[in-house]
Amino acid sequence: MPTVTFIEPDQTARQIIGADNHSLMEAAIRADIAGIVAECGGECSCATCHVLVDPGWFEATGGPGLFEDQLLELAPSRTVTSRLSCQIKLSAALDGLIVQVPPSQRS
Question: Which one, 13, 36, 52, 85, has least CB within 10 Å?
Answer without folding.
Answer: 13
